[in-house]
Amino acid sequence: MKQTLETLEKIYHRPLFDLIQESRRIFLEFWPKNEVQLCTLLSVKTGGCSEDCGYCAQSAHYNTGLQKESLMSTAEVLPVAERARANGSTRFCMGAAWKGVRDGDPKFETMIETVREVSKLGMEVCVTLGQLGDIEARKLKEAGLTAYNHNIDTSPEHYKKIVSTHTFEDRLNTIGSVQRAGLSVCCGGIIGMGENETDRLSMLEVLCSLDPEPESVPINCLTPIEGTPLAKTPPIDIFELVRLIATSRIVLPKAKIRLSAGRDRLSREGQALCLFAGANSIFYGDKLLTATNPGVDEDRTLLESLGLTPQAPYSDVPVPSACAS
Asked: Residue 309: helix, strand or coil by DSSP?
């Protein structure tokens, strides 16, 4: 449902306990089970990206010490996906560091084959491959892809301060292609990049305006990387993160709100508060694309202590034909 910035500000600035109480009420209305979605994220093509996103260790514009790696083959990816499934993950996400993909490119054909094979494992499959058009989105859908991740990162106003090699409109164009293909949209942002609270709510306003709304909304906290322009950015306050998660839950009640990058810098208590306020998805595994993440055993202990269990794959979306029994 579309929301105005004024409405979002009124929700966000409620007394914290009132805000959490309301977000928890809505959360239980739409997600009554004590479940959390477990997602594993794998970098299938690391480093050497031509984009200049100021937060990213993989940009070729910055000297971060990250070694450039070639695109992984399907045979290399499958064992990782199988281990993720064995560890309890129900969504397998793959990311490639490049500007985008085009039909007919050998790299795109490799990704199509990888998606097709991973989808046979019974997990939900998500990729983030940069910019794409209608043809590429349709072919990914036909291969068995569940969702396409393409974050808008921040507000339209702040975006130009973060990246110059593409525009905010470019991000929306890709999301449009994903929607037209009938894929679920996984779209969120990053906080702690020098933006203010109005920027965060402006970002949320855009997410609420998408039609259909995002199926999942990753909320990332910046992980400062030496060598990038945002390396010295101070960490986000936990209560600011909780406020954004709670507000997101209230205005996007049907979405999976994913507590994403930066979770390893949060205390167990901070993570528990985020989950109570409305987050119901996490990245699960020792590593994200290039950043660290809490270990599997650590997360299992946390979830067990909170009485949370893994959400089954395709629990609230139709099962793709590739995974149907």
From this structure: strand
Q: Check 39, 126, 208, 221 and give the catalytic one.
A: 126
Annotation says 126 is catalytic: yes
For the chain, domain boundaries = 5-308
In contact, 286 and 292? CB cutoff 8 Å: yes
Does the annotation mark 208 as catalytic?
no
What is the DSSP secondary-structure string of 217-253? EEEEEP---TTSTTTTPPPPPHHHHHHHHHHHHHH-T
Catalytic residue among 187, 258, 263, 274: 258
pLDDT tens-digit series, residues 188-231: 999 999 999 999 999 999 999 999 999 999 999 998 889 999 99
pLDDT, tens digit (0-9, with 9 covering 90-100), for 4-59: 999 999 999 999 999 999 999 999 999 999 999 999 999 999 888 888 898 988 88
Q: Which of 39, 91, 186, 263 is catalytic?
A: 186
Q: Determine the length of the chain.
A: 325
Active site residue 49: yes
56 part of the active site: yes
From 93, 208, 221, 274, active-site residue: 93
For residue 212, is the peptide bond before it cis, meaning its omega torsion is within 30 degrees of 0? yes
Indicate if 258 belongs to the active site. yes
- Out of 3.50.50.60, 3.20.20.70, 3.20.20.210, 3.40.50.300, the CATH code matching 5-308 is 3.20.20.70
Listed residue (223, 219, 251, 227) closest to 235, CA to CA: 223
pLDDT tens-place string over residues 229-279? 999 999 899 999 999 999 999 999 999 999 988 888 889 999 999 999 999
**Exposed/middle/buried for 188, CB within 10 Å: 0-12, 13-18, 19+?**
buried
Global pTM exceeds 0.85: yes
